[in-house]
């Protein structure tokens, strides 16, 4: 599969949006070259605001801009946007339900060499717990563009988690993103694997390999972690009776937790979560780290076998 | 009590003398004490120190429309020290944003006047605040947005002196001057008290004037209970170009009631009924 840059697509989509709508403004905290908001800054310098290394103020100012009718996109690295600035996001953006779009790059372990301080393994959890906030984790460039365009014209706060690393392209131009909807990418009978971000491509690989071993895997891509597609999860679980989640995030509070919440309340079945196991990351190359933490097709296959063994 | 037609507020710099402003502020102080006392919770001290400035903003300076709180041409006020919202609620009620009776809803389950300002529940609130250190950043964003729109609306914001210990206040102060926000005026309610005691003993913010000057602000020092000085400072801020203005207002926490003045204990404690009677008497109410 061809590898594509989600953050470059983000920058390009911002420029597109900037051309069609004067209300679009962009804020960054000294990372515009990395988050790719620099692309927007180059074309629309008067609508780009660098707040320096001051993430809390940046979030508060985005809220203020939203009250004047602007559509602010705010970017920095995922750990700073959802960690350092968490309380500003809660108090000044989400509590008054303001129209601010937080799009952070450098989510997950694939941040790579910078190591644990820069690897956001908690960002989805940090944002998912705030009322009014919606949380989207795209898998490739085509989906990223769809997501960014959709949230630009949907009122209220969003958190979108993008990566530093390029990810395999999964979708084609016919792909359409809907808030709160998952996508069945492959139908199966024995187990459901629910994934997002780079883990969706590994889920597809795992499903192919497992088929040779006689295990039929249903693969669901779930970009919308909140709101989550309860109906689709329950439907698939009632068919396969076993679920595995896979995410480039801590197993606490992210996609795995969200799916578990749905299952316990709707259709309890054995479930296994793949993610980082409540530990910090470390330095290494992005793809090396995925394998180091077992976040790959092998890791998924192991969880699949484990959950199938638990089926009653 | 003096009432004004809503149309009175549509132009800035209204003809209203100090005697009238003082009379209005006295009513506002009574409201503050009654609201907090009725709820047996809330923050009277810092509301009393802020009252004269908020009254001057809404009755003399700001262009606003109580009948149409979202009026596009309005000036905006952000109460970054959100805990003193009884002062703001009283002024909003008295200028006509909602009926005075609503003040009884303060901090109650079946009411719209939350313990800290909520822009979704209360007309006239520009941004929700309560967690200190955030409102001033939101005010910076508003000032930026208004500039982008080439609007001549102005943004006023009040912060506490204890609040100024928050790093985000200085992030916002840096940004305001970096973006030359001459449409932003911040008032520091410098009562030198916070919960644990005097600001200079808990964690000194001084020299405050020099700090904001060093951050590139135009700084004006006033007595925050002298209406002539408040008006003059707000007028001076109108003339400043390419810089935000900081008005460092020396104030007295608990101002207006002798036994509350300069006492940290009345920061977040409501008056019991007997002391309320006493205080209202001092403020000239026949009880
Ligand atoms: C971030 C945050 N920390 C703590 C508090 C609790 N708190 C409420 S008021 C206050 C003291 C504020 O002092 P100051 O800013 O001087 O206000 P004033 O004297 O004008 O009442 C504190 C610590 C808060 N509201 N927000
Ligand atoms: Mg104080």
SSE topology sketch:
The complex is a heterodimer of chains A (312) and B (287).
Chain A: E1 3-4, H1 6-20, E2 24-28, H2 32-35, H3 38-43, E3 48-50, H4 55-67, E4 71-75, H5 78-84, H6 86-94, E5 101-104, H7 123-128, E6 134-136, H8 141-152, E7 158-161, E8 167-168, E9 183-186, E10 191-195, H9 199-212, E11 217-221, E12 224-226, H10 230-240, E13 243-250, H11 255-266, E14 271-276, H12 286-292, H13 297-310
Parallel strand pairs in A: 2-3, 2-4, 4-5, 5-7, 6-7, 10-11, 10-13, 13-14
Antiparallel strand pairs in A: 1-8, 6-12, 9-11
Helix pairs in contact in A: 1-8, 4-6, 9-13, 10-11
Chain B: H1 18-39, H2 44-61, E1 76-79, H3 85-95, H4 135-148, E2 155-160, H5 167-178, E3 184-190, E4 193-194, E5 197-198, H6 199-202, H7 208-214, E6 218-223, H8 227-239, E7 245-250, H9 273-282
Parallel strand pairs in B: 1-2, 2-3, 3-7, 6-7
Antiparallel strand pairs in B: 4-5
Helix pairs in contact in B: 1-2, 1-3, 1-9, 2-3, 2-8
The structure holds thiamine diphosphate and magnesium ion.
Magnesium ion (MG) binds next to strand 4 of chain B.
Structure description:
The complex is a heterodimer of chains A (312) and B (287). Chain A has a 7-stranded mixed beta sheet, with helices on both faces. A 5-stranded mixed beta sheet of chain A has the order 9-11-10-13-14, sandwiched between helices. Chain A contains 13 helices and 14 strands. With 312 residues, chain A is α/β, with parallel strands linked by helices. In chain A, strand 6 (134-136), helix 8 (141-152) and strand 7 form a beta-alpha-beta unit. Chain A folds into 2 domains: 3-168, Rossmann fold; 183-310, Rossmann fold (3-Layer(aba) Sandwich), CATH 3.40.50.920. Chain A has helices at residues 6-20, 32-35, 38-43, 55-67, 78-84, 86-94, 123-128, 141-152, 199-212, 230-240, 255-266, 286-292, 297-310; strands at residues 3-4, 24-28, 48-50, 71-75, 101-104, 134-136, 158-161, 167-168, 183-186, 191-195, 217-221, 224-226, 243-250, 271-276. By secondary structure, chain B is α/β, with parallel strands linked by helices. Chain B has one domain (6-282): Rossmann fold (3-Layer(aba) Sandwich), CATH 3.40.50. In chain B, helix 1 (18-39) runs antiparallel to helix 2, helix 1 crosses helix 3 and helix 2 (44-61) runs parallel beside helix 3 (85-95). Chain B is globular and about 50 Å long. The A-B interface holds A 25, 46-47, 49, 51-52, 54, 56-70, 72, 87-88, 91-92, 95-97 and B 118-120, 126-131, 133-146, 148-149, 167-168, 171-172, 174-175, 178-179. Bound molecules: thiamine diphosphate and magnesium ion (MG). Thiamine diphosphate binds next to helix 2 and strand 4 of chain B.
């Amino acid at each position: 599969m061809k590898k594509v840059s989600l953050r470059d697509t983000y920058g390009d989509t911002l420029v597109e949006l900037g051309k069609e709508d004067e209300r679009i403004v962009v804020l960054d905290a000294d990372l515009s070259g990395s988050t790719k908001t620099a692309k927007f800054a180059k074309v629309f310098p008067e609508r780009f605001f660098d707040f320096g290394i001051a993430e809390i103020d940046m979030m508060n100012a985005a809220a203020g801009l939203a009250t004047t009718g602007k559509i602010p996109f705010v970017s920095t690295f995922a750990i700073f946007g959802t960690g350092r600035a968490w309380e500003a996001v809660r108090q000044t953006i989400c509590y008054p339900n303001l129209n601010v779009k937080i799009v952070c790059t450098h989510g997950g372990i694939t941040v790579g060499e910078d190591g644990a301080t820069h690897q956001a393994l908690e960002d989805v959890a940090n944002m998912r717990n705030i009322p009014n906030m919606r949380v989207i984790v795209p898998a490739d460039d085509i989906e990223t563009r769809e997501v960014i365009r959709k949230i630009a014209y949907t009122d209220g706060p969003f958190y979108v988690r993008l990566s530093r690393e390029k990810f395999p392209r999964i979708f084609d131009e016919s792909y359409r993103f809907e808030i709160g909807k998952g996508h069945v990418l492959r139908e199966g009978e024995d187990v459901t694997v629910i994934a997002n971000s780079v883990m969706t491509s590994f889920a597809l690989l795992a499903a192919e390999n497992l088929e040779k071993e006689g295990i039929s895997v249903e693969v669901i891509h779930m970009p919308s972690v909140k709101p989550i597609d309860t109906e689709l999860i329950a439907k698939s679980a009632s068919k396969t009776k076993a679920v595995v989640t896979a995410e480039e995030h801590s197993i606490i509070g992210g996609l795995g937790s969200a799916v578990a919440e749905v299952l316990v309340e709707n259709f309890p079945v054995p479930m296994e979560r793949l993610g980082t196991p409540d530990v910090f990351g470390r330095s290494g190359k992005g793809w090396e780290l995925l394998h180091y933490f077992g976040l790959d097709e092998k890791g998924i296959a192991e969880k699949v076998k484990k959950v199938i063994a638990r089926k009653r | 009590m003096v009432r004004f037609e809503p149309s009175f507020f549509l132009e800035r710099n209204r003809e209203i003398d100090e005697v009238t402003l003082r009379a209005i502020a006295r009513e506002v102080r009574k409201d503050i004490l009654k609201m907090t006392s009725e709820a047996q919770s809330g923050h009277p001290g810092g509301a009393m120190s802020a009252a004269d400035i908020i009254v001057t903003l809404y009755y003399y300076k700001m262009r606003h429309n109580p009948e149409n709180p979202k009026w596009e041409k309005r000036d905006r006020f952000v109460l970054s020290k959100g805990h003193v919202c009884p002062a703001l609620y009283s002024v909003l009620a008295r200028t006509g944003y909602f009926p005075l009776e609503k003040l009884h809803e303060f901090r109650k389950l079946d009411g719209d006047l939350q313990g800290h300002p909520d822009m979704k529940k209360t007309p006239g609130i520009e941004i929700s605040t309560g967690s200190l250190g955030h409102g001033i950043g939101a005010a910076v964003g508003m000032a930026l947005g208004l500039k982008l729109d080439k609007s001549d609306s102005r943004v006023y914001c009040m912060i506490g002196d204890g609040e100024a210990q928050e790093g985000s206040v200085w992030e916002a102060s840096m940004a305001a001057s970096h973006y030359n926000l001459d449409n932003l005026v911040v008032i520091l309610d410098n009562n030198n008290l916070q919960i644990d005691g005097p600001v200079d003993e808990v964690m000194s913010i001084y020299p405050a004037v020099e700090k904001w000057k060093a951050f590139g602000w135009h700084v004006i020092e006033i007595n925050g209970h002298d209406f002539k000085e408040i008006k003059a400072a707000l007028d001076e801020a109108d003339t400043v170009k390419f810089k935000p203005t900081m008005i460092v207002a020396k104030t007295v926490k608990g101002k207006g009631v002798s036994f509350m003045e300069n006492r940290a204990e009345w920061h977040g404690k409501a008056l019991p009924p007997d002391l309320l009677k006493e205080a209202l008497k001092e403020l000239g109410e026949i009880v």
